[in-house]
Inverse folding.
């Protein structure tokens, strides 16, 4: 299927690896020019260079990088200095650390809310009115399946991302955006094979004394698909939500979790 977005410009945050890179790759393979953001300049440039050399990229597709912390005003200014009028924005930053809520002070909460709620809101605020004026816009927020099925040790993520989810539910439905072909949706990953998942499992290895294979196998058994997702399949869903065909899909929370969420709705 031609997604109908060739030649559009996308800002993809947290794009040097994992799910963000999966989104950048899927969009670029559709001929979308991408501006990739991450803090570590070297890994970011390596990922971008690999993408430029990807045989599936249509000729003329641009892949640019901005090494910046997207959770800071300076980082966002750098992303918008690369280009002001993005058609597509994929919001993403690292997830907050796990822990016990008794140990989190105000500063820990502010960091989590900043990265996983206020940063996406700032990116939305900076782009959607321009998108509406041009008659096309797609925002995809990478959030977490924890928004629907909270995980006890990820309280910072459960809380901050739920705030973003509530905001998006209202903002996406405003006539000024929805009637102007500007959509805002959240993509909720379950367990995906990325460094973040490996780091979480390493924590379990240390805590339980089990091997990494045993921890991974136990985790896979909790997923009906009996496997972890791949960044490429995550990216494919993101690209569809960004496509010309998805203009009637807005304000949604799309789970990609191999069936792990046990509820009917
Ligand atoms: P990952 O493999 O650790 O990749 C994170 C990416 O974001 C890297 O490119 C990282 O590069 C970048 N990044 C982190 N903080 C940033 C910042 N402040 N500014 C700019 N870039 C930043 O993580 P992932 O697995 O792809 O996860 C992506 C998101 O999905 C996270 O919020 C995570 O909590 C959530 N999630 C993941 C899973 C899963 O199973 N993988 C499940 C549920 C939710 P630098 O460090 O160089 O900046």
């Amino acid at each position: 299927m031609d997604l109908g977005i060739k030649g559009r410009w996308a800002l993809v945050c947290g794009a040097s690896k994992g799910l963000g890179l999966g989104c950048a790759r899927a969009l670029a393979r559709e001929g979308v020019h991408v501006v990739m953001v991450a803090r570590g300049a070297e890994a970011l440039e390596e990922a971008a260079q690999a993408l430029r050399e990807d045989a599936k990229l249509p000729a003329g597709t641009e892949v640019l990088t901005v090494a910046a912390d997207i959770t800071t005003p300076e980082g966002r200014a750098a992303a918008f200095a690369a280009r002001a009028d993005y058609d597509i924005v994929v919001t993403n930053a690292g997830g907050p650390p796990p822990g016990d809520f008794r140990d989190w002070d105000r500063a820990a909460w502010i960091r989590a809310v900043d990265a996983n709620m206020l940063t996406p809101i700032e990116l939305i605020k900076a782009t959607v009115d321009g998108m509406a004026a041009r008659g096309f816009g797609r925002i995809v927020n990478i959030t977490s399946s924890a928004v629907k099925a909270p995980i006890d040790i990820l309280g910072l993520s459960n809380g901050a991302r739920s705030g973003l989810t509530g905001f998006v539910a209202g903002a996406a439905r405003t006539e000024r955006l929805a009637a102007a072909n500007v959509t805002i949706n959240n993509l909720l990953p379950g367990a995906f094979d990325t460094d973040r998942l490996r780091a979480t499992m390493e924590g379990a290895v240390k805590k339980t004394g089990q091997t990494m294979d045993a921890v991974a196998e136990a985790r896979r058994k909790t997923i009906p698909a009996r496997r972890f997702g791949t960044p490429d399949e995550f990216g494919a869903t993101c690209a569809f939500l960004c496509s010309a065909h998805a203009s009637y899909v807005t304000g949604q929370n799309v789970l990609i979790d191999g069936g792990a969420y046990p509820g009917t709705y």
Observations:
- The longest helix spans residues 106-134.
- Residues 13-20, 37-40, 43, 69-71, 92-95, 142, 144, 189, 191-192, 194-197 surround NAP (CB under 6 Å).
- The chain has a mean pLDDT of 97.
- Strands lie at 9-13, 33-38, 63-67, 88-91, 137-142, 182-189, 253-256.
